[in-house]
């Protein structure tokens, strides 16, 4: 009996995370034929009741993330919903229109997202002016699902493009549609007054010395895309740009499908809308504790280079911070910065800001980083409080020094260096590896009892200090 053995080389760069999306255009945009896309209209709900519940929740002592949307449970899969169109070249298009009347925007959570190589997925507004994607098999997540950021309007279209002779049929299933009833992201007339008027836009003069730390902070869409928190990318002692992200424990819930929105801020000091397209999808929970109300996540996608993010430094020494500074998204508003010109107060596993001197925090700020005003390092994340523009009360932040031994240190100092503080660093273009191997025939035809030996030389001819990982597979 003759056997054929094939030795193949598979490359996997250890520093690579899946890209967010690729530049492409839905195939239907280039079609001259008009396709009557089937629509799934979601049931209406009482918006006034939701707003009334939000007002009660805001006055409650029970700390919850800021709610802006109603997460509506659905089961929209490609087998039972939408329309398939087969093109002349053998490729196919699947489309579904989702409408929730009165919504200012819609964002989606998917319980299944499995695409073959070459397939592309898009979500776009009814007028095609706003397009998310293309998303590909590179966007696969460890938990098997996916999530997409808010798209303007009360009707959106999903489009899947599958090439001819794909290795398998793609599967996409939507299980939550979040109906934005507060018009958080796209209302040009809003005036961004959902947060108090005492707040400072981060690109005002008071934020000039904090531009690095500002770039580390992101808004989070939690709880099935219906609530908002804030958090920050954080550096680690290996300084390998692993996208660790710090927020509050009480923000947790469905974090594998969270959307992280970076750079949602005014370009200047005046109130102007910011970009909503700089997002990444999904995270893995690494460590958390209610003792200091912290949660450390690892983003499932590394923010692309053009997001220009910063990985903030931290201090876990427990030394009382001077002139504390908070950077956050109050009430889902564009990014703000707040100052306390006094030292924080020690309160067990928490730091207390007794009263903000310039700016404040609000629901939506939960999980946001508290920085030491001198070192610019994170020393806590927001748990809660009573501060507002009309009430100069306290805010409470979980201490990083307490969180350290509750699991945070296992990841931010995985090599046990014993560091008690670390400065931040910008995302940089890490050196690229390149696989090189000797030119050799690696296909052998062997009979029973035969042996044959051949050597293969593998090397990394990439940039200096680059890291190449590879595996060898015999089939």
Rg, rounded, reads: 25 Å
Q: CATH homologous superfamily of the largest domain? A: Trypsin-like serine proteases
What is the typical, i.e. mean, pLDDT?
Answer: 90
Percent helix, as a range, is under 10%
Task: Report the sheet-strand fraction.
Answer: 35-45%
> How would you sum up the major sheet?
8 strands, antiparallel
- Globally, the shape reads globular
| Number of E strands | 35
| Number of helical elements | 4
Rounded to the nearest angstrom, the distance between the terminal CA atoms is 17 Å
Low-confidence stretches: 8-19
- Total discrete domains: 3
Structural class: mainly beta
CATH class category label of the largest domain? Mainly Beta
**CATH architectural designation of the largest domain:** Beta Barrel
CATH topology of the largest domain: Thrombin, subunit H
């Amino acid at each position: 009996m003759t056997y054929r053995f094939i030795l193949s080389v598979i490359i996997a760069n250890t520093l690579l995370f899946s890209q967010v999306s690729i530049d492409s255009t839905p195939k239907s945009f280039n079609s001259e034929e008009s396709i009557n896309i089937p629509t799934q209209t979601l049931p209406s709900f009482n918006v006034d009741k939701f707003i009334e519940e939000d007002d009660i929740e805001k006055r409650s002592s029970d700390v919850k993330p800021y709610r802006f949307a109603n997460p509506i449970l659905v089961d929209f899969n490609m087998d039972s919903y939408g329309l398939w169109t087969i093109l002349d070249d053998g490729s196919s298009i699947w489309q579904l229109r989702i409408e929730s009347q009165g919504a200012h925007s819609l964002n989606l959570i998917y319980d299944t997202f499995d695409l073959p190589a070459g397939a592309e997925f898009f979500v776009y507004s009814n007028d095609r002016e706003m397009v998310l994607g293309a998303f590909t098999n590179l966007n696969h997540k460890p938990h098997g699902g996916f999530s997409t950021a808010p798209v303007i309007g009360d009707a959106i279209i999903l489009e899947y493009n599958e090439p001819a002779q794909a290795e398998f049929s793609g599967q996409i299933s939507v299980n939550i549609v979040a109906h934005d009833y507060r018009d958080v992201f796209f209302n040009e007339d809003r005036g961004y007054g959902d947060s108090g008027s005492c707040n400072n836009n981060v690109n005002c003069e008071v934020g000039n010395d904090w531009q690095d730390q500002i770039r580390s902070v992101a808004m989070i869409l939690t709880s099935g895309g219906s609530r908002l928190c804030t958090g920050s990318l954080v550096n680690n002692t290996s300084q390998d740009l692993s996208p660790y992200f710090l927020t509050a424990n009480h923000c947790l819930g469905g974090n594998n499908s969270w959307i992280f929105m970076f750079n949602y801020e005014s370009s200047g000091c005046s109130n102007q809308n910011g970009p909503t397209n700089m997002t990444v999808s999904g995270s893995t929970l690494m460590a958390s504790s209610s003792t200091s109300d912290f949660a450390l996540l690892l983003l499932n996608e590394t923010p692309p280079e053009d997001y220009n993010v910063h990985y903030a430094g931290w201090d876990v020494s427990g030394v009382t911070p001077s002139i504390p500074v908070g950077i956050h998204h109050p009430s889902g508003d564009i990014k703000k910065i707040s100052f306390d010109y006094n030292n924080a107060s020690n309160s067990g596993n928490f730091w207390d800001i007794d009263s903000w001197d310039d700016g404040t925090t609000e629901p939506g700020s939960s999980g946001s980083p508290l920085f030491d005003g001198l070192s610019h390092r994170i020393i806590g994340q927001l748990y809660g409080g009573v501060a507002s523009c009309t009430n100069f009360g306290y805010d409470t932040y979980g201490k990083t020094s307490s969180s350290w031994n509750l699991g945070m240190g296992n990841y931010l100092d995985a090599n046990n260096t014993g560091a008690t503080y670390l400065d931040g660093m910008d995302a940089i273009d890490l050196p690229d590896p390149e696989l090189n191997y000797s030119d050799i025939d690696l296909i052998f035809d062997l009979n029973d009892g035969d042996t044959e030996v051949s050597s293969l030389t593998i090397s990394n001819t990439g940039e200096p200090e680059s890291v190449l990982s590879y595996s060898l597979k015999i089939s």
